[in-house]
Amino acid sequence: MLRVASMAIISDGSRLFLHRGDEMRSASLRRWLSSRRVELDRIAAAYGAVRGAGPGGRRATRQINQAYAVLLSAQFQGFCRDLHSECADLILESVEPPILRAAVRTEFSLARKLDRGNPNPGNIGADFDRLGLVFWEHVHRMDVRNRQRQRMLAELSEWRNAVAHQDFDRARLVPPSLTLQSIRRWRSACGGLARSFDRVIRNYVACIAGSASGELRNGHTTQASPREAPEVQSR
After folding, report:
1. Closest listed residue to residue 2, CA positions, set 79, 97, 124, 133
2. Which tens digits make up the pLDDT trace of 42-73?
3. 143-158 as b/e, with b when 16 or more CB fall inside 10 Å?
4. Rounded distance between C-alpha atoms, residue 187 and residue 33, angstroms
5. pTM of the entire predicted model
6. Tens digit of each residue's pLDDT (9 = 90 or more) over 214-230
7. Which three-class secondary structure string do you get for 151-193?
8. Which of 141, 130, 138 is closest to 85 using CA atoms?
């Protein structure tokens, strides 16, 4: 068993987490709120440009809806993958002795589902759980809306698969028809989950670091002695 040593969280903007007043955002969340948002806004604007544009407008909007749903899922996958890597990197800085860090990095990244699979709730939970926390349990505690957001994320993932494989089984898909309104709801859900994911990881890193040691309870950290900080277990 490898014990994670106490470490300081670097607040320099070039590092992983950036302080803004009392708030600390990961680089992953900052990208989600900036460059990833821009990409999603562009395809949303394309929908408005073709809507009602003659006889071919309906077909074009259907294709844009499909592209929008796939892009939303892909951008959220990128966010989750980046956040997972950031958390792993911070944990690795604290692993002692340092010679073991390469082995622990391999354990964290080996067969990572977010590298190949969709960002559905199962894949996200499996990858983040390997970092040492019961991820979705803490996400649910962070915000009562997150259970519904998780279900909406699962809907988005099903539609992403349907578009990718051009297999539209209405008995399986929710909603049965892909609309701009549905995509906007999914995008709002992804945005809420992104912020909650960021806060869960922030609390977890702070717990490991010892700067705010404690257990995650109801979305908050409670004070605890350094020896109660989580451990990274070798598998």
Report:
1. 97
2. 999 987 777 655 666 677 888 999 999 999 99
3. beebeebbebbebbbb
4. 12
5. 0.77
6. 333 334 433 333 333 33
7. HHHHHHHHHHHHHHHCCCCCCCCCCCCCCHHHHHHHHHHHHHH
8. 130
Helix 146-165 / helix 57-93 crossing angle, nearest 10 deg: 120
Amino acid letter, 180:
L
Bond preceding residue 97 cis, omega within 30 of 0: yes
Check if the beta carbon of residue 15 is closer than 8 Å to that of residue 205: no
- Show Cβ contacts of residue 39 under 8 Å, excluding neighbours closer than 6 positions: 71, 75
Q: Give dist(CA 223, CA 72) in Å, integer.
A: 38
Instruction: Please check whether residue 131 is in contact with residue 84, taking contact to mean a CB–CB distance below 8 angstroms.
Output: yes
- Residue range 125-182, pLDDT digits in tens: 999 999 888 999 999 999 999 999 999 999 999 999 999 999 999 888 999 999 999 9
**Phi, psi dihedral angles at 97 (to 5 degrees):** -75, 155
Within a 13 Å sphere around the CA of 69, how many CA atoms are in the beta-carbon half?
28
